[in-house]
């Protein structure tokens, strides 16, 4: 499995011929749009910074798009979406927007992408169902999503083997990543891409990896 970061909350996960994308960036977004083909596109929040399904319809790939809570299974990948809340992109005083937290099981590993989550209080269903997280993608940028301190608090409580901060590159408050790392009080590792097998998780316990876009 290879994981790469494409800015904001967008991550591409490739496993052989299979490509999964979390929160693809659309045209007209705050960030530059992505352009590659995907088999599965998971959208956490209906906002151009995260809903660019058309941008990952490319070449011979037309993605199966998942845009909300529910249980899905495609190409031996099991996906569970949990309802949560986001304030990203909203005016002050507006009602919370729908955010979907995704748990993805593939190659005997569990990836959890929190999307544009605004609150550390996950639903009871999510808390009870999400267990033994291998890789956690957590928003740290504030400005409608978790603040760096709240992001660290939630990440620690979920006890993942690897923590990948997001929503700090191109969107989010200035120096959000630095504030998150300061809150963690531990070291971090910066990589261009993450190549991961199950055996690579041995000995990992909340390791923070920064994937550079």
CATH third-tier fold name: Metallo-beta-lactamase, Chain A
Instruction: Characterize the main sheet.
Output: 8 strands, mixed
For the record, the CATH architecture stands as 4-Layer Sandwich
Structural class: mainly beta
Strands, count: 14
- Strand order across the biggest sheet? 6-7-8-9-10-11-14-12
Number of domains: 1
Shape: globular
In which range does the helix fraction lie?
A: 10-25%
Based on CA atoms alone, the radius of gyration comes out at 16 Å
> Could you name the CATH class?
Alpha Beta
What does this structure look like?
- Helix 2 packs across helix 3.
- The radius of gyration is 16 Å and the shape is globular.
- The protein is mainly beta.
- The longest helix has 11 residues, at 148-158.
- The protein has a single domain, classed as Ribonuclease Z/Hydroxyacylglutathione hydrolase-like (Metallo-beta-lactamase, Chain A, 4-Layer Sandwich).
- The strands form 2 sheets. Strands 6-7-8-9-10-11-14-12 form an 8-stranded mixed sheet, covered by helices on one side. Strands 5-4-3-2-1-13 form a 6-stranded mixed sheet, with no helix packed on it.
- The chain starts with a strand and ends with a strand.
- It is built from 3 helices and 14 strands.
- It has helices spanning 124-129, 148-158, 176-184; strands at residues 2-5, 11-15, 18-22, 40-42, 64-66, 70-74, 77-86, 97-106, 109-113, 135-139, 162-166, 188-191, 194-195, 207-211.
């Amino acid at each position: 499995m290879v994981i790469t970061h494409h800015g904001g909350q967008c991550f591409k996960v490739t496993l052989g011929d299979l490509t999964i994308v979390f929160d693809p960036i659309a045209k007209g977004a705050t960030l530059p749009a992505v352009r590659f083909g995907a088999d599965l596109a998971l959208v956490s929040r209906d906002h151009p910074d995260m809903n660019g399904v058309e941008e990952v319809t490319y070449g011979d790939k037309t993605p199966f798009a998942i845009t909300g809570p529910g249980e899905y299974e495609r190409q031996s990948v099991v996906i569970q979406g949990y309802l949560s809340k986001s304030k990203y992109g909203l005016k002050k005083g507006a009602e919370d927007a729908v955010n979907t937290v995704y748990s993805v099981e593939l190659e005997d590993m569990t990836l959890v992408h929190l999307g544009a989550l605004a609150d550390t209080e996950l639903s009871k269903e999510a808390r009870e169902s999400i267990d033994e997280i291998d890789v956690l993608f957590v928003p740290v940028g504030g400005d409608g999503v978790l603040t760096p301190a709240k992001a660290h608090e939630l990440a620690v409580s979920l006890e993942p083997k690897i923590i990948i901060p997001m929503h700090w590159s191109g969107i989010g408050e200035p120096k959000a990543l630095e504030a998150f790392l300061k809150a963690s009080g531990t070291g971090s590792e910066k990589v261009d891409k993450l190549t991961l097998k199950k055996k690579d998780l041995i000995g990992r316990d909340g390791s923070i990896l920064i994937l550079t876009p």
